[in-house]
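re: ur question from yesterday

yeah so i grabbed the chain u mentioned. its 125 aa long if i counted rite. heres the sequnce exactly as i have it in my notes:
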Amino acid sequence: MTILRLAASAMIGAVVLVGMTPAQEKDKVDIRGVVKKITATGLGDNIGSVLVEGKKEKDTHYDKAFVKITRKTKIFKMEGKEKKPADFKDFKEGQTVRATFVGPVAESYPVQATGAEIIILSAKK
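ran it thru and got these structure tokens back, copy pasting raw so excuse formatting
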């Protein structure tokens, strides 16, 4: 009986660990950096993508990423301390953004992932 409980606990723990993406960790973002390239596609659910380049910091996981933007991606822009809704057309090269991912991350370089949320932090420099 004890062995069964241990085995069940181990399996549940493994499922929880495997199912968690980096962005689900509290107060972590997957990438923060500057928008280097914007590509609009408009094909089906896929709106386009942005190439983001930054530094890997304590609270980020990647320094460079192609972030796919879908109709489910939540896009915001900071206006002062307020987070306001934004749209794909609001992206401009040179802006600073932060993004969290959803689903699998293609571990190429740069990584490729689908954006869960992307926030425009500052205007083009």
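noticed a couple things. Residues 32 and 98 are 4 Å apart (CA to CA). also The chain is about 15% helix and 50% strand.
anyway ttyl
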